Structure formats: structure tokens, C-alpha cells
Give the backbone structure.
Amino acid sequence: MSKYLLDKFLYTVDRDPSLVERYREDPVGTVAWWESSVANTILNSHSGEASTWLRLDDVEREALSTHDYVKLFELGAHPFLTLTLFIALFERDHAEPLAFQKEYAARLAHFSLPYPDIAT
Amino acid sequence: MANVVAVIASTHHPFYYRASTATGDDRPPFADEWTRKILAFRETLTRANPDVLVMVGSDHFHQLWLDNMPQFLVGKAPFYDANWHNEEREFGLPRMLLRGQEDLSGYILREGLDAGFDLAFSNELRIDHSITCPIITLRPEADLPIVPIYTNIFAPPLPQPKRFVQLGQTIRELVESWPSDLRVAIVGTGHLSLELGGPRQFGPHGPDPAFDERAVGWIANGDLDGALAEVTLDSLHAPGNATHGFMDFMLMMGVAGAGVKADYADSLDLFHTMEAYFTWYPNGVPSA
């Protein structure tokens, strides 16, 4: 269980426009590629250096691979990161302003306080 | 010594730029009232005639990340590029370049460290909408040098609310002891009740109008005791999952001073969140 790594996926994909498109079109392939190629990258460090121990668990991998933002909320992914990336992914499919954001809220309606802990 | 000519606290709403510049069918129905309120708020800074802006805000996972997360960080650079790709993408915010006031940055860092705040620093900081929103609303010319100060209201564990208040009090003392004859405005932005990425997001009002009403009262009256008695890191989850940004308002209450009523207070009940705007004049209200 690594909320940090979930957040790292959301963060690194969101900041790369080509990766946003790749994740939209091929979530399973993008998550597999990311876990093998990016997950252990130490951001803002020497390019040759990497961590050795970071991996998603099966539930996390499945949530990312199915664009399941409801599950990501349940797992404690940072809600700002999830929202920002998923707006970039799917707002374009909705005609009305904020329609995606309102649908997103409705799909989370079964959660009540306290929400899942987001501390990493 | 430098002169604190205005203390300003507000929400930072990234939708304002697009709403206020939209025309025709693209202009949302709330844009005209919002723009009127912002122009009135802008006048409160303009009439203070500042030379320098100390800007308190919070990075939204742009440059600061979980592998190296500072609690309080002061920018010290001659320039600050501003706004990021995903803010351009989602909010239509423009790229900006702001000048820095490095001497004041260095003074706040040195004296702040000696006053008990282990401040982080950055010599190459790209700032985001928590600081550019108030530039757009209050000083769209973007012509004054700034000192950006970032707080962590975003990635737990967070500092306690009282620590934000104490930092605000210290910033005020440090600016007032800065050996300079410049006129400084201290501007900070935060949130009232706010939910992002949760079930209460983007409702017809902010997620907790009752909290917003109490919060506006605390700020307008400088009621630090009231705010500190009620606000804890745990309690801020209840009004909305992004409400920890209220601690930046508490920091600004510390800048303004306990028990000091705002000279200007206004708010706007938008869908999604309540906007709120406050100005204090430590030297009295300047003539128009």
C-alpha cells in the first residue's frame, strides 16, 4: 500500500501533456510502462540514480488501470491530484461547464466524514 | 524602517481571470458582480501606494513535491516565472514574470531563522495561482517586486494553526524592522470552506456556509482567539477537504494583529466556494 506512489503517478502524468493523452487512450499499458520505467525515478535528482523499492499493490494498479477515481479516493490518493488529472482526461467529453466535476462529486456521494486519510 | 502600508487577505479563485475577461455568450452570469467587487477590492491596495508586495500563498504540487516538502518556504530570487501548464490548461491563466525583492527576502530568511522559524528557501521558484490570482485581482500590472512565501496547507502532516498565526506575527515584525524606507503591502490568500476532489465539490455554494459565516466574522474582527479556539487540524476536515487553506487566512490575521478589525471587508457567495476580501491599514485609511 503506497499512497505516495499513487500520488507520484498522478503528479508525473498530470505534468506531461503527452502522458495525459497516453493515459487517456491506454490506461493499462500506461500504468504498466510507468511502473517499470518511472515509479522508481527520483524526481529532481541525478538522471542515473533511482530508488529500488517502489511498486504499486494490485488494488492500486487496478484502480489506476481502470481510471477508477472513486477507488483512488477510497485509497487515500490526494484528491487535488486526482481531480486535476481527471479533469484533464475527461472534462472534454462533457458539453456543459463543470458537468464532469459534478458527476465526479455524485459518484463519490456515498463517502461521509471522516474521508480516507491522505497522509503519506 | 520599512512601512507596512496595507495588509490584505483574500481567497484565490483561479476562475476569476477567465470569467472576468470572457465576453458575449462565454461570459458567465456572475462575472459582472464579481468584477465589480474585485475592482473595489483592488482600489484598497492601489490607494496604499505600495512599493513592494510580500505574497503569502501555497504551492499546489507544482514545484514542491512529497519527496522534499517544506512547511514554510521563502523565495529569494531576482525574478519569478509564474503559472504552470496545468493552470493554463484548466483555468486559462496567463504566463507571467514577476520581479523579486531579494533584499527583503534575505532579511526575512535571516531574521526569521533567528526568530525561531526554520524557513526553507528557494532561489528558483516558479509561483502558481495562489500568488498570481491576487496579482491578477489586485495589481494586474504586475509591476511591483515581490517576496513570495509559501505555506504547506496541502500535504499532511501540516503545521498547527497557531504556528501559521505566529508566522504571520513574525512576518509583520520582520517587515517593520527591515532597514528600508520602502512601502510594503503584505498580501496573503487562502480559502474559506472548500472541497476539491470530494463528494461536496462544486455545489451551489461553498460546502459549509455556516463555517464561512463564522470565518468571515473572525477575520473581519481580527478575532484570533475565536478562530484559534475553534480551528484545529482535525476540525478543518469538516467544512470541506481543502479547508486547511483557511490557515493562510489565520496567518494573515496574525499579520494584521489580534483584535484589529479590517478596514475593508467584502464577500461574494459564488457556487462552489465563498469569495472573501479583507484589507487593513496599519497607519489608518489612506485618503482616496
In short: Residues 19 and 25 of chain B are 11 Å apart (CA to CA).
